[in-house]
Amino acid sequence: MAFDNLLLERDDAVAIVTINRPKVLNALNARTLDELHRVVLDLKRDDSVRVVILTGAGDKAFVAGADINELAVQTPTSGRELALTGQRVFDAIENLGKPVVAAINGYALGGGCELVMACTLRLAADTAKLGQPEITLGIIPGYGGTQRLSRLVGKGKAMELILSGAPISASEAERIGLVNRVVPAAELMKEARMLAGQLAKRAPIAMHYIIDAINKGLEMPFAEASAYEATLFGLVAATDDMREGTRAFLEKRQPEFKGK
Ligand code: CAA
């Protein structure tokens, strides 16, 4: 697949997607959003891909937000469509059914912060800065930021970050649970590949259901979410991978999961 604004690389079962508009700090214009959507649907269908890493080109930014040139000319109806489109793309990332690791190599602002929040796990370079500066442009987050940030870090911190618009450091983001781990900038991709490599050895169907149980369960009443978990537990009990995982434990060897 050819893209104008994305790079796609493969390392065995790991796909690495790089948002590639470094001159504008990888800002997300409509074309980039569209390409992200296409690549995500493709990676979802490709059984040989078990984990995805998402990062930004250059050493300055992951993504510095939606492209402000395009934002500046939105009308009420086109603005609504744009937000719905961005939300659809980010929902597709959140529900890819395989772990998506954000390797946050610099600024993750506005739509960039919203994008990392749609990922399954977040590793940040110690130089990264994260935030929702939309308020400084007279707008509000439109790609799920008000909802995902409050779910990730709690209502109080989300209010503070979104109302102030002020970016926070990677270490503060780790402290409040916005990123999973901070690593030295020079080690970011090595660490992301290592994490992705470990995840790629895990049972794919079980990973899919864990992501589903957490994402969907969080939006359900507890009893309903527990029942959903039990159903998924029943489903994984029907997989070859479950037999392999339990047999490997009893035979004191490493399991080899096939995703079946
Ligand atoms: N859209 C379009 N262009 C952008 C951009 C963006 N979001 N962010 C940076 N750029 C461009 C700059 O205009 C500049 O272009 P020129 O070289 O042609 O002047 C280039 O990228 C480099 O940026 P700076 O010179 O500004 O770099 P800096 O190091 O001085 O500052 C920065 C870095 C603090 C990240 C600053 O670029 C900045 O504040 N960017 C905008 C961040 C922002 O407000 N993002 C939210 C967008 S709104 C949104 O995302 C809505 C939503 O929820 C969907």
Number of helical runs?
Answer: 11
Helices and strands, in N-to-C order?
A: EEHEEHHEEHEEHHEHEHHHH
- Please, what is the CATH homologous superfamily of the largest domain? 2-enoyl-CoA Hydratase, Chain A, domain 1
* Structural Rg: 19 Å
Assign a percent range to the helix content.
Answer: 40-55%
Helix vs. strand class = alpha/beta
Assign the CATH topology of the largest domain: 2-enoyl-CoA Hydratase, Chain A, domain 1
- What is the class of the largest domain in the CATH system? Alpha Beta
Distinct small molecules bound, one entry per kind:
acetoacetyl-coenzyme A
Task: Give the overall average pLDDT.
Answer: 97
Choose one word for the global shape: globular
Distance linking N and C termini: 27 Å
CATH architecture of the largest domain: Alpha-Beta Complex
Structurally, the number of domains stands at 2
Q: Write out the strand line-up for the largest beta sheet, numbering strands in chain order.
A: 1-2-3-5-7-10
Strand content: 15-25%
Please give a quick description of this structure.
With about 260 residues, this protein is an alpha/beta fold. It has helices at about 30-45, 70, 75-95, 110-120, 145-155, 155-165, 170-175, 190-200, 205-215, 220-235, 240-250; strands at about 5-10, 15-20, 50-55, 60-65, 100-105, 105-110, 120-125, 130, 170, 180-185. The longest helix has 19 residues, at about 75-95.
What is the topological layout?
Blueprint lengths: L5 E6 L2 E6 L10 H16 L5 E6 L4 E3 L4 H4 L4 H19 L5 E5 L2 E3 L1 H8 L2 E5 L3 E3 L13 H9 L1 H10 L3 E2 H6 L5 E3 L4 H13 L3 H14 L4 H15 L3 H11 L10
Parallel strand pairs: 2-3, 3-5, 4-6, 5-7, 6-8, 7-10
Antiparallel strand pairs: 1-2, 8-9
